[in-house]
Amino acid sequence: MASTLRYPELSSGDRILRHRLESPHSVLTIETDLESRVVICTCAGFWTLAHTREHFLEYRRVATAMRNRVGQVRAIVDIRQSATQSAEVADLVEKQLNGFYTGQDRAAMIVESSLIKMQMRRVIDTRYFEFFLSPAAAWTWVLA
Question: pTM to 2 decimals?
């Protein structure tokens, strides 16, 4: 199964693993980068509805704590190793992401292709999200 992706050249801060869900078909992780104060999600494989719900409960807890601490959520969400999800999972993801971000929040989603980038723009609130093929570009945008 895929491991958590690392970008040491893009962030020198220490990382704390906050949450990891693993099944035979997927890995969902949530970390926080202490120096940059960014919440980092790495999602791989095909997610079950139950794992997706659990992941978002934990993500909201971690991101809300970050918002309360520093006034905003800055997130990197890497879905390059994710499979095409079921309609039920896709609906849940859309509802969770579109109802959560406010004010100064910024979330950069790293995707595998321009097609996925275009599809995500149709369903995710672009006031808070931007979509990238490059991890370096995503980090630059989220930290700006």
Answer: 0.85
